[in-house]
Specification:
248 residues; Rossmann fold; six-stranded mixed beta sheet; four-stranded antiparallel beta sheet; 36% helix; globular; binds adenosine-5'-triphosphate; binds magnesium ion
């Protein structure tokens, strides 16, 4: 597939359009309907929180949107690309170019320093060393971790690890950031800092979807999606915290 085809199609249907998606997991004799007829449209620049009880399908939805997992049926268009028709290589490429992931447990590579963890996606994409170093330097500054650039993950605090993970997730300049309980392992102060960074990125234009169990974090989003038993049980727009603060 040519690079152009992975870019925006002439008619821009919204960043994400999911319709009639199902996903069932089979374990022995039992079947779990993890996604049950999901319909979801997400516009460019949206900020959504996804909440719901444990086992309601939040991570399954996020993995499906992030092209880590394939639905059993239904359709999923990302920036005008019908992802259901892509092969694994094409999916991997779209994922690499358009999607950033942030996880509760950071998923950093233990043997690599903070700087090297952030740089890795650029290396895998074949970006030249000089450009890599320039781009990583910008991110280290932006996320206020330049002083920790040469630390290994186990020499960083939880908040610093998550900032490195965010750095890695945005180094390829994705259009969407998918975060699965990004503050789940953090104390309140580090969690607030991570939330602020994610919201700054959203204000700069990235589409942000945050799965969370934390009501305070969930309430901050502009759009609240709630899941129950694999289905979307509600989906509402709200005034965002920052907007509410500004309005007094
Ligand atoms: N790979 C898998 N194999 C079998 N069952 C799975 C698999 N992944 C998820 N499930 C099941 O699908 C359902 C939804 O799981 P999912 O991880 O999406 O829930 P969740 O809402 O993210 O929960 P939590 O809040 O605990 O993270 C659960 O019942 C889970 O056990
Ligand atoms: Mg989960």
């Amino acid at each position: 597939m040519s690079r152009d085809l992975l870019r925006v199609s002439p008619w821009f249907p919204g960043m994400i359009e999911v319709s009639g998606v199902n996903k069932t997991f089979y374990l022995g004799d039992s079947a779990v309907h993890a996604l049950d007829n999901i319909n979801l449209r997400i516009e460019q620049g949206d900020y959504l929180s996804v909440m719901g009880p444990s086992g309601s399908g939040k991570s399954t939805l996020l993995n499906m949107l992030g092209l880590l997992d394939r639905p059993d049926d239904g359709s999923y268009c990302l920036n005008g690309v019908d992802t259901m028709s892509l092969n694994e290589n094409e999916r991997a490429r779209l994922r690499r170019e358009q999607i950033g992931f942030v996880f509760q447990s950071y998923h950093l590579i233990p043997r690599l320093t903070a700087r090297e963890n952030i740089e890795l996606p650029l290396m895998l994409a074949g970006v030249a060393a000089k450009q890599r170093h320039a781009e990583v330097a910008v991110i280290l500054e932006k996320l206020d971790i330049a002083r920790r650039a040469h630390h290994l993950p186990n020499q960083l605090s939880g908040g610093e690890r998550q900032r490195v993970a965010i750095g890695r997730s945005i180094v390829m300049k994705p259009s969407i950031l998918l975060a699965d309980e990004p503050t789940g392992n953090l104390d309140t102060r580090s969690g607030t800092e991570v939330t602020r960074i994610l919201e700054d990125l959203n204000r700069e234009g990235i589409t942000l979807l945050v799965v969370t169990h934390d009501n305070n974090m969930g309430d901050r989003a502009r759009r609240h999606v709630r899941m129950l038993d694999g289905a979307i049980s509600s989906d509402h727009m709200h005034q965002q915290q920052g907007e509410a603060d500004a309005a007094g």
